[in-house]
Amino acid sequence: MVLDNTEKLYSAFKHVFNYLTELELTNEQKEVVSVKLYKILDESIVGHLEFHKMWLFKTFSNGPGWNTEKLATLYNENDDDFSRREIILALGVVNQQSWFRPKKRSAIEFPAWQRRAFLKAAICLPGDEASHWYRSVLTRLDPLEIAVIKWAQHQ
């Protein structure tokens, strides 16, 4: 009901998504909610504002079960750092290794927020692939980015 009334809840949009992330939804419920979230992105004025998209995309990084098939496409369609950062994190949570592999070489050139999200989310790469890649870029990272890698490796 909340997602069907986002136009009315516009001023409390952030709280709507805080509420969603606190719910313990089954995978079937997450699928239904995902469809509604994509509809908000496509059809609602609310879904066209950067901060609102950021909160919406953050929902997809709250564990498995969300319909994340469109996220890679949405990454390409959204050029704001807020949305891209949350999409990268969500792709890592759902283990989209095929999305990360071709971007490893250019990830160091991403804007700061996206680069740090990529560093955190790339831990989804299998076996030693992530740790080998981390070592290869370590000398080009700032102290905060190094801390992000250490944090990701100990999650």
The H-and-E topology, N to C, reads as HHHHHHHHH
Gyration radius, rounded = 16 Å
Computed structural class: mainly alpha
What's the total number of strands?
0
Q: Low-confidence parts, pLDDT < 50 over ≥5 residues?
A: none
Shape type: elongated
**What count of helical segments does DSSP give?**
9
Terminus-to-terminus distance: 35 Å
- The domain tally reads 2
- Assess the beta-strand content as a share of residues: under 5%
Structure keywords:
elongated, 2 domains, single chain, mainly alpha, 155 residues, 59% helix
Description:
This protein is mainly α and 155 residues long. Helices cover 59% and strands 0% of the residues. It is built from nine helices and no strands. α4 packs antiparallel against α5, α5 packs parallel to α7 and α7 runs parallel beside α9. The mean pLDDT is 89.
Question: How would you briefly describe this protein structure?
Answer:
This protein is mainly alpha-helical and 155 residues long.
Topology summary:
Blueprint: H1 13-22, H2 27-43, H3 50-59, H4 71-77, H5 81-93, H6 97-100, H7 112-121, H8 129-137, H9 143-153
